[in-house]
Specification:
This protein has 33 helices and five strands. The strands form two sheets. Strands 3-2-4 form a three-stranded antiparallel sheet. A two-stranded antiparallel ribbon has the order 1-5. By secondary structure, it is mostly helical. This is HID1 isoform 11.
């Protein structure tokens, strides 16, 4: 009964506070004490008893009362007192390492005096074993709940970013995050380590016993989720605008590499970029891979493990690790462990391709693969045979991880929703980057690549937007790389090219006269279908897979800013004979005469949404013959035309001599054939490496806060507040 009474008193005090228009004296203790009475209120109670609208009313009507309520803890006479925000953040940091509240006390007696909390060495109280800490404390439900509530409070403090509109130029740092991750916070290192280890050590399977989660409720998951969210927010750092934190230094005996020059002032970014021990990398990679694979396990043994929901936060964390710590990136690519990250990402991409509310997930997955594809080792790793049979809604094939990647990309392009079009460039850039290293593509995959070329080289597609022909260039580059560098193992692809040779002849003879261009665009108006689905033998999907479903009507989603075009997103490098990369100078026309950047350039690139929709065909965009000629003359068709010139007569001869319609004989001939000395001199391999830029930094900020907004519903911390960073929309 007592608790109900105290809640009523608390609610009465709130009503008094929100209805008084006169300032209440700070010395009126009888009034103010009602707020700090020992009511065991839960967070949910506070949200129910203190409606947000009433707090806003106090802020508008009687700000002095709100100020008194905030400062009622002592220091109002002291003019040298810290700003309230700093005191609050330091208090939260202290509480996160408070014995018997959030950490196990190491002492027999309890800590009574405040001094003890301030003198305590929090590095001895790190929450979980892992990076830089070997001891795993006993799990404690109460401590986990207290930590979680404090982290929620911390996120709320950091959420100022949600109330600022997205601006491309704002490399603005969040002052709350900046202070919390600075040397002012003496707990920065142990807290960073605690958050990282708590996330990476988490095993949702329930200590290895299937179905265990049905018996025990998992109190760790909410903590891990908040820890992941706090981590990615504190790591929100625009590496493009500051000196890159990653430098190769020598190795020392500590978990953090001290040999590097001082990195960014944000200590969390600094610590992350200096992790360097192999066993720490292994711990982080295994942990993230285990958690990302969790939704896939669901499809093998339904309900055997608890299905985690925070894979988007994990992907952002993995991105930050690779972007800020190059040694980690190289470690990931050093063994086939990278495939344990690749397969879950491809699973998410394939699963979300029809769902408008998961556009953000599609982008982060593709960005990670773009980043990885800039490294030669990624292409090499893809040659590993793919034997895991995760039920996915894709055609059945026998082949490698490269086949899996291309088959999934084909599915996204041909059966994803319209808003994925800006990603096509990225998807094909990834395929171009890995193509020189692909030893053997399956027949299914070879047909998919030619189907894409067929769809992208129809006249209406090529003429209906200024950038569409780039997709054809990317695909031709893929074919050239494989023919020049991996001809021997790729008879399937060579056979598919021979069978579909008409596509290449049509491209070589692309019409450039105005009447034909006009006719092609007329046809476009009648068939606004994004890509022809015909001509691709779909084949049956894998057993046990469900088709990718669109979002349920009414699903909430948050808007995202446009991503930069592929030319802003990547930088071209040439692979030298010895395998080293040489950065290529950007084309001269991009820079102005005096070398200064164009005014207003970022914001313009910002708004420039790729691929105008059909409506723009009638208005602004009308392709001129000169424009078509300008790129038609550059189509890299020489290698393929030479290959067709040499091989087609031989293949036709086999068919006539043996009366063959049978593929196997032709494939056998192609397997043993050689084009040594017959092809043009191999071109140098071009890699388009991801480069940090303020556009993607801004995209990550909006995406990350959108995820955090939608995932924190109990209590609904930010619902119905005046968020400006993104719009909340219903599908």
């Amino acid at each position: 009964m007592g608790s109900t009474d105290s809640k009523l008193n608390f609610r009465k005090a709130v009503i008094q506070l929100t209805t008084k228009t006169q300032p209440v004296e700070a010395t009126d203790d009888a009034f103010w004490d009602q707020f700090w009475a020992d009511t065991a209120t839960s967070v949910q109670d506070v949200f129910a008893l203190v409606p947000a609208a009433e707090i806003r009313a106090v802020r508008e009507e009687s700000p002095s009362n709100l100020a008194t309520l905030c400062y009622k803890q002592g220091e109002e006479d002291d003019e040298h007192a810290r700003p309230l925000a700093e005191s609050l953040l330091l208090a939260i940091a202290d509480l996160l390492f408070c014995p018997d509240f959030t950490v196990q006390s190491h002492r027999r007696s309890t800590v009574d005096s405040a001094e003890d909390v301030h003198s305590l060495d929090s590095c001895e109280y790190i929450w979980e074993a892992g990076v830089g800490f070997a001891h795993s404390p006993q799990p404690n439900y109460i401590h986990d709940m207290n930590r979680m509530e404090l982290l929620k409070l911390l996120l709320t403090c950091f959420s100022e970013a949600m109330y600022l509109p997205p601006a491309p130029e704002s490399g603005s740092t969040n002052p709350w995050v900046q202070f919390f991750c600075s040397t002012e916070n003496r707990h920065a290192l142990p807290l960073f380590t605690s958050l990282l280890n708590t996330v990476c050590a988490y095993d949702p399977v329930g200590y290895g016993i299937p179905y265990n989660h049905l018996l025990f409720s998992d109190y760790r998951e909410p903590l891990v989720e908040e820890a992941a969210q706090v981590l990615i927010v504190t790591l929100d750092h625009d590496s493009a605008s500051s000196a890159s934190p990653t430098v190769d230094g020598t190795t020392t005996g500590t978990a953090m590499d001290d040999a590097d020059p001082p990195g960014p002032e944000n200590l969390f970014v600094n610590y992350l970029s200096r992790i360097h021990r192999e066993e720490d990398f292994q711990f982080i990679l295994k942990g993230i891979a285990r958690l990302l694979s969790n939704p896939l396990l669901q499809t093998y043994l339904p309900n055997s493990t608890k299905k985690i929901q925070f894979h988007q936060e994990l992907l952002v964390l993995f991105w930050k690790l690779c972007d800020f710590n190059k040694k980690f990136l190289f470690f990931v690519l050093k063994s086939s462990d990278v495939l344990d990250i690749l397969v879950p990402i491809l699973f998410f991409l394939n699963d979300a391709r029809a769902d408008q509310s998961r556009v953000g997930l599609m982008h982060i997955g593709v960005f990670i693969l773009l980043l990885l594809s800039g490294e030669r080792n990624f292409g090499v790793r893809l040659n590993k045979p793919y034997s895991i049979r995760v039920p996915m809604d894709i055609p059945v094939f026998t082949g490698t991880h490269a086949d899996l990647l291309i088959v999934v990309f084909h599915k996204i392009i041909t059966s994803g929703h319209q808003r994925l079009q800006p990603l096509f460039d990225c998807l094909l850039t990834i395929v171009v980057n890995v193509s020189p290293y692909l030893k053997s593509l399956s027949m299914v995959t070879a047909n998919k690549l030619l189907h894409l070329l067929e769809a992208f080289s129809t006249t209406w597609f090529l003429f209906s937007a200024a950038q569409n022909h780039h997709l054809v260039f990317f695909l031709l580059e893929v074919f050239n790389n494989i023919i020049q560098y991996q001809f021997d193992g790729n008879s399937n692809l060579v056979y598919a090219i021979i069978r579909k040779r008409s596509i290449f002849h049509q491209l070589a003879n692309l019409p450039t006269d105005p009447p034909t261009i006009h006719k092609a665009l007329q046809r476009r108006r009648r068939t606004p279908e994004p890509l022809s689905r015909t001509g691709s033998q779909e084949g049956t999907s894998m057993e046990g897979s469900r088709p990718a479903a669109p979002a349920e009507p009414g699903t909430l989603k948050t808007s995202l800013v446009a991503t930069p075009g592929i030319d802003k997103l990547t930088e071209k490098s040439q692979v030298s004979e010895d395998g080293t990369l040489r950065s290529l100078e950007p084309e001269p026309q991009q820079s102005l005469e005096d070398g200064s950047p164009a005014k207003g350039e970022p914001s313009q690139a910002w708004r420039e949404q790729r691929r105008p929709s059909t409506s723009s065909v009638s208005g602004q965009w009308s392709p001129a013959p000169e424009w078509v000629l300008s790129w038609k003359s550059k189509l890299p068709l020489q290698t393929i035309m030479r290959l067709l010139q040499v091989l087609v007569p031989q293949v036709e001869k086999i068919c006539i001599d043996k009366g063959l319609t049978d593929e196997s004989e032709i494939l056998r001939f192609l397997q043993h054939g050689t084009l040594v000395g017959l092809l043009p001199v191999p071109h140098p391999i071009l890699i388009r490496k991801y480069q940090a830029n303020s556009g993607t930094a801004m995209w990550f900020r909006t995406y990350m806060w959108g995820v955090i907004y939608l995932r924190n519903v109990d209590p609904p911390v930010w619902y119905d507040t005046d968020v400006k960073l993104f719009e909340i929309q219903r599908v």
